[in-house]
Amino acid sequence: MTPPDTAGTEFAGRARSAVRPDDAPAGSGAGRSSLADVCAVLWPPPATVSLSRGPGVLRGRPAGGRERDFIVLPSARRPRLLVPSGRRASAAAVRRYGEPGSFPAWAGSRALALALAAGGARAGLGGRLRVSAEPGTGTIEAYLRSVLGSEVLISTHLGAARANRKPVLQLLTRRGETAGFAKVSVNPLTRDLIRAERAALDTLAAEDFRELTMPRVLHHGEWQGREVLIMNALPVWRRRKALRPGQLVAAMTELTAVGGRSHGPLAGSDYLARLRSRLEASQAGPDRAALGAALDTLAAAGAEFGFGAWHGDWTGWNMASTADGLLVWDWERFALGVPAGFDFLHYRLQSDVVRRRRPPREAAADCVRNAPGWLAPFGVATAEAPVVAILYLAELSARYLADRQAEAGARLGQPGTWLIPTIEEAMRKL
After folding, report:
1. How confident is residue 318, by pLDDT bands cut at 50, 70 and 90?
2. From 3.10.20.90, 3.40.50.720, 3.90.1200.10, 3.20.20.70, which CATH number describes the 247-428 domain?
């Protein structure tokens, strides 16, 4: 049996240098978000963070200070979730993180939530983390309290390595009610994505959707030099309902109409100009050169496409189907004037690769092979559909390259190993 760490051990050198400064390049390193990284962002000095791997009470409480205790799940050695220590709030936090997932994930989260509600943390479940800060210290809780006008507890999931990884905080009341979600930037990429999501939600708020519900912005501001976006909580706890035939396509088609649809050639389009610009901003190399050559060939072919809006990252884990319709979140990649059908291709590819664990290159090839049938409901002609699928794979490749996902350790972050070979093979068959 491994003995627990000494209770009250100061964590990560007061978390002073555990995260990159905002002017550092996005991403270096693999694995999940380091607990030290998250602590350094949310509770900068002079706040201190103490970690214990045992279930006991942390010692070393400074007189006159303000403390907040958390449970680290499943353990301090393997941190995946950071939740408040209170029974109601911790149970609610775990339940919410399991809501949109698969049945095993849902069942596991429910079991863990029941254990926390029953006092499982006191019996030794999880590790312990304490934040100590004198009154007036600029912690994230102090900022949230000042802009929301009420006290909130926070929890966060420690996600897998990605260049766009950042703290996404669930905001809870002491009774375990979800008051909203907050995103906090950690570098220029995440700063720009948060700003883009604010702009997207402002645009979408002016629309009258029948099929879709998205979050509302409660606050957007700057704290400690970082962007903070606070949104209301979508009611993901409502009873789930299987997607009815055609519902997903109808919702994506409705979104496509935002800003108006158009039709025209790829050459000279705003879309191609934006795609080239992002590609040119990425690091020079064979992947960038191959994508540039593919775009030149597609533009010269003279094909015409329908253009409209897309979510940009519409996946099964960014939506929930309820009796009240589709709830869709994470609008950081929303854009106007892209080839119609991109959202559906993204949904199918990500479902195949991430949830079904299909070989990535095989799933990408299926996007092109099945494009005529998949994209027909979006008004895409049979002859144009494979080219739209190739453009989607190029879009995703340019995103990964520009974001430097490979350097951040993302599992699918190297387009040269699966996306670009698929593009080149598909173009030989056109």
Report:
1. very high
2. 3.90.1200.10
